[in-house]
Amino acid sequence: MKSYWIRPESGKTALELRDAPAPEPGAGQLLVRMRAAGLNRGELIVGHAVKPGGAAKAAGGEGAGEVAKLGSGAGGFKVGERVMGRCSGAFAEYALMDAREAIAIPKNLSWEEAASIPLVFCVVHDMLIAQGKLKAGEWLLVTGVSAGVGVAALQTGKALGAGVIGTSGSQEKLDKLKAMGLDAGIRTRAGDFSDAVMKATGGKGANLVVNNVGGSVFAETIRALAYEGRHATVGYVDGVLKSEIDLEALHTKRLTLFGVSNRLRTAEQRAVTVRGFAADILPHIAEGRIKPVIDKVYPFSELPAAKARMESNAQVGKIVVRFD
Fold first, then answer.
1. Which of 17, 105, 207, 283 could bond 114 through an S-S bridge, CB–CB 3.0 to 4.6 Å?
2. What is the 3-state composition of the chain as percent helix, strand, coil, each rounded to the nearest 5?
3. What number of other Cβ atoms are within 10 A of residue 297's Cβ?
């Protein structure tokens, strides 16, 4: 089968197309014939999946397709069923998916839409619901709101009844997102938005922050938080891994700071999030109240061009590759 691999190269990541044998499903696994797969900045741009000087790894972290074969104990699914989910090596004609993380695809979704959902919306469930405890009437601030996680956070926040504020360096992107329900857009790539957040929230601040950017805006997100505000760190696309922490603000405003990552979680911990997503967010998607936002779809053979699109920072929503 054809399969893309990712390797570190001169401070960035590079893709190579290989011929590889189709994997065999082990206990509790599904072999999925991939129909579409989503791109994720953390893997392809930041390079979370590979180590400098390390070996190449099968690329891709999420996708959608048909069950081709069941491993022992992989109950609940049947051959030919449409599934989506987190899976290593998703940029290949066949990939393995843990049955605990596989999700039956609602009938109203295309392959491309389904492939754009698993990682970002499970992360959003973790941030907004499981840890962030976002409630109707509260304010959500999302930095870098036009990225895949940012758009999914906007959509989910609105579905939960929250007001949503987003930052972006592009007014054009903010205008597009306002048409999707963004209540207030702040055009900036710098840490200079707390005053605008306070103005938008009547001086109260954001109840929950999703920091999609990193350390360069961390101090400003703390300033933008309300009393008993919660702060989710989900990315650091700016490459800045350290920042000051205003201990007085943390102390007096009774803030909660938490991180969101799957890197050190067990399979069962990830499965808990999948079940939470299926209960709390998937019904909104299945009934059309949340529609996945796809920036652009590329043929599988053009994955390097799709990666270049992501590197250009031009996207709004998810970039997807489709298998012919």
1. 105
2. 30, 30, 40
3. 18
130: how many CB neighbours lie within 10 A of its CB?
17
Domain with CATH 3.90.180.10 in the chain: 2-117+292-322, 121-259
Q: What stretch of H or E contains 261?
A: none
Domain 121-259 in CATH 3.20.20.140: no
CATH superfamily of 2-117+292-322: Medium-chain alcohol dehydrogenases, catalytic domain (3.90.180.10)
Beta bridge partners of 194: none
CA proximity to 210, closest of 145, 269, 135, 156 = 145
Query: How many helices (H) and strands (E) would you count in the chain?
Result: 11, 16
**Helix, strand, or coil here: 150?**
helix
Q: What is the dihedral of CA 165, 199, 256, 190, to 10 degrees?
A: 70
What is the Cα Rg of the chain in Å? 19
Beta bridge partners of 57: 6
Please tell me whether the overall predicted TM-score, pTM, comes out greater than 0.70 for this model: yes
Tens of pLDDT, residues 198-235: 999 999 999 999 999 999 999 999 999 999 999 999 98
